Amino acid sequence: MTPPPPFVFGSGDSFADVRDCIPPRLIALAAKGPALLGLDTPAVAVAGLAHLAASLGRSCFFDDGSSQFPPCFSLAVLSDSLLPFDWLSLLGRGWVDDATRIQNLDSDHIRAVIKNALRDVATKGPDRSAIDPQFQAYADIIPLTVVNMMRRRTILSRVDPDAAARAVVDSRDHGAVIMNGAGDPMAEWAQLPPGKQQKLTEMLKFGWQGKPLTVTSKGAEVPGTVHALWITRREPVRRALFDRRGATVNQSAPVLFFLQRGNPKRLPAVDAVEFVEWSKCLKMAFDYRSNVPPEGPCTIAMNKHARQVAEEFYEQFANALVWVPESLHPYLSWLTDLPFRLFSIMLMSKTIERALDLKHTGVAKEPSKPDQNELQATMRQAVRLTRWLCQEHYRVVSSYKDAASTDSTGLATDSTDMAALEEVILAKLKDKGPLEPRELQRSFHALSAQTRNSAIERLKSNGLVIDDPDGKLAAAA
Length: 477
Known about the structure:
The protein is an alpha/beta fold and 477 residues long. It contains 21 helices and twelve strands. 51% of the residues lie in helices and 10% in strands. The longest helix is centred in the C-terminal third of the chain and has 28 residues. The chain starts with 23 loop residues before the first helix and ends with a strand.
């Protein structure tokens, strides 16, 4: 098999390169995203992958030999739409509707379920006449604490670490996802007190690393996962994660950024065949999560060939990170573990797709052991998807570079219009040919080296300026 090309941040790895890696029912919907949903195909694809992971929750774990973690990952879609429609939640309705119905069960309905279950047990005894005549009276006063045990929280809309901790405890599998509520979630994060911002970031990081979460003020820990599925806007993201006055720890939060342009449809075609089939896929994944067998969640491991593919990407990623400004490293370094999540998602999706193709209407079964070639091929798909998502994430992060950078090549300290400066620099390089950085600086009046370097680094990160063989700056061909 042809080895993958070198991985470089800011170039290559477009969605066209990975279309064949997207699960069949998801790519069928994504391909019609513009017509059915008013959304670009790539946006539907990445949001669908995140929802598939969320629907599975902690029902399956990837084992890398030293730790185990579920497929869930956090996604923040940066929208430029002025309309407040939450299309991201709608896209996941195949599992979101069921999860919401469970956690919002009416108390009377829950009591009825418990009473029927108890009556069922009682009437199956060898001597039915021995049923306690006080049964009905006892059933009518079932304590509220017992009723609440049947409520299983999976989704919350408050961006608050204490609320997230309660949701983890209340969840059947100790997994909770934070979704959009009344306001912009990133704006809510930025408005939290510094201590709570740090606590939320730590919860996201520990969940990503497969470490226990602290869920009480006294330090009680449980194995758990908190992740996010958000639609947000550029300015709230800047305040929460890139503002130098914000909490520095937020920079390392494992949240994947993806840019979505245009206005989604206010009345999307949710009755279209493609949307219905995708919803069935999510529902089956959530059914599997809700019916994990007594022996516990399934564990997914690599063979040596899949491990080799993952290690090759790790080395390429590490080499590429060296060439990225140091101030961006916290925003990028966590992405090395994304292939493992996608590997789990791809394997589980294949099982679900096969079950749906066979018109299986029950609960999705634990995935059968794939053969060695399938493991390697699936890991290659996971790596290809990761390369693409890394580029999308990097484009968003690098666009905030001036706000995020704290090193000598970072933020301009004067009032220079950086966008205009970059255009002028690029024009000079195209007109005069390769120039030394100092030559370029002398061609401007009162331009500081820090501002010059900042503009040059942005142009390089966008692939517009390169270093020629003599070490001079040149406009890219």
